[in-house]
Amino acid sequence: MRFFRWLYNQYIRSTQIRLTSSFLLVLLPLVFVSLYANDRSRQIVLDQTLSQAQNNLDSQAAHMDLTLKNVEELSRMIALDKTLLQMLDQAGPELTPQSIIQFTEILNRLWHVTSISQILSEISVYHAKSGTVVSTKNGAKRITLADQKEVYEQLALSSGIGGTYVLPSQKIMKDTTFRELSGSEMVSLVRTMDLSAWSKHSNLLIVTLNKKKLNELILSALPSAGTHLYLFEKDGNIITGSDQPDSGTGFINVKKEGMLRIQAELPSYKWSLVMLQPEQEIYGQTGVVRTYTYLIIVISVLLSLILSWWVFIRIASPLDRLSYGMKELSSGNYDLRLDTTRKDEFGYLMKTYNKMARHQKHLIEDYYEQQLRLANTELKFLQSQINPHFLYNTLDSIYWMVKNYEAEEISEMVLNLSRFFRLSLNKGKEAFTVEETISHLHYYIRVQQIRFLDSFTVSYQIQEESKTIPVYKLLLQPLVENALLHGLERKQEGGELIISSYLEEEYLVLSVQDNGDGINRERLDYIQQELGSLAQNKAAILHDMERTIHDLYGLRNVLIRLKMMYGPKADLQLESEEGVETRITLFIPLDSCKSEFIMDGKERLA
């Protein structure tokens, strides 16, 4: 009991012991997991190998199934070839010169097919009337023995119009095998040529597969040199395999000890692919993994002991210095600096401490200056609220005085101007809906129409979905003023002002368009360059807020407010054609269009 109490006290008092214990505790689960992983690795490797091999074998079986279907389709095309059927029908029971020419033409056609498909080694046609076999391998040969003709007739009956695959060792009739009949050493597809008149006297088509190409197809699925792969037909007879057995030679033992057996069926046939892979090839990798695991565990424990001591030495000294610096800073000593040449996290912390001390000192020194600036800003804000109120009240008084003298145009002008200032105040509200903004803007435009003696008309193209979206107040007024002063002012009549609002993807689009004088190319390039540099430079926006620039004042003002209130995605585009029209378009992100979106400009820019 005393030993455990002493050990606990040492753990509490010694940072080194705590660090060492922590490192070892971190390693402990890894050790158990590693040991457990070794026990499970054999089964995991086996499962993964079987799964991968099964997938590969299934894929290979599907590919081979497709190949056999292609062969079957090719044989169907030959069997339905009208020219071949006509030549076979015209050839009589005797070998006349005309029959020999026809057989030669048939042979040429069969050669052409074998040259196209490499999976075929031989194509033969048996002409029942003359008993002649035309083969791409042996040429034309006439069958004279009645027994052989009877075998061909039996083969025609058994194969039918659909065709069937026949092994060389398969018995056709009595003791006669297909190898003895055709001389073929590989599986062949046999079908009748006369699909419309099937009988035992039908002409036969025999398509023999290329053993070499079929083996290459099988060998491509072998994962290793020690693996064997065999192709069996439905009765279990072997067709071909990786160790080159004779086709149809009989059965092979696929349940060998120490070999893993994987089987895949050909979807359209009753054939199967069987792969035998040595277990040692799979499990041999786990022994190496086990050895490395034990070695890593031993090395990890040793490294944990060494690293715990090294970390303790490296941490203790900088922690003491940082602790001393924090105490001095909390007592008001802002001039203390911690010297360090370290490049690690502690070096970063010490450098950050030095920056924090300097920053804290600067904050205290700048506090009073900031308070003075704040007071000055509040005073200007108060004045900006008083002046519009004064103007609104004065204009209202003027309106009633003019009304008494029945000066309708002047009274309408004063009334619209008064309403414009009243909505501008709006009890300090900074946001309007698009619909309210257009109504507010119309008061200003009506004043200008009276001023310019109705020399221009105004039209509003406001999309219904955009009407309820809130926007910052007085955002369009500088653009309208710009269009009137620089575009429509010199037009005596026929002026047109178009205000548009619509949604485009993730943006609210506002535009002001006029058919005034337009802007010449040189001036337009200059304006676009100035606005582009202002939009891309946050520092330039903040700098423009603190200085007075008369050139492009309205456009700069709108662009700065856009960036401040809606962030960097907001944009202003200017398009103009001299003597034709000018169009200014605002793009405002919809995710920033909220009723409570009005924020401090510098915070928006950040």
From TrEMBL:
- Output the Gene3D superfamilies linked to this UniProt entry: 6.10.340.10, Histidine kinase-like ATPase, C-terminal domain
GO molecular function annotations of the record: phosphorelay sensor kinase activity
Presence of the UniProt keyword DNA damage in the record: no
Q: Where is the HAMP domain?
A: 313-365
Query: Is the Membrane keyword given for this protein?
Result: yes
Record's bilayer topology term: Multi-pass membrane protein
Question: Cellular location of this protein?
Answer: Cell membrane
Q: Name one GO cellular component term.
A: plasma membrane
Segments traversing the membrane: 292-313
- What PROSITE patterns does its record include? HAMP
Keyword terms, alphabetized: Cell membrane, Kinase, Membrane, Phosphoprotein, Transferase, Transmembrane, Transmembrane helix
Q: Mind telling me what this protein is named? A: HAMP domain protein
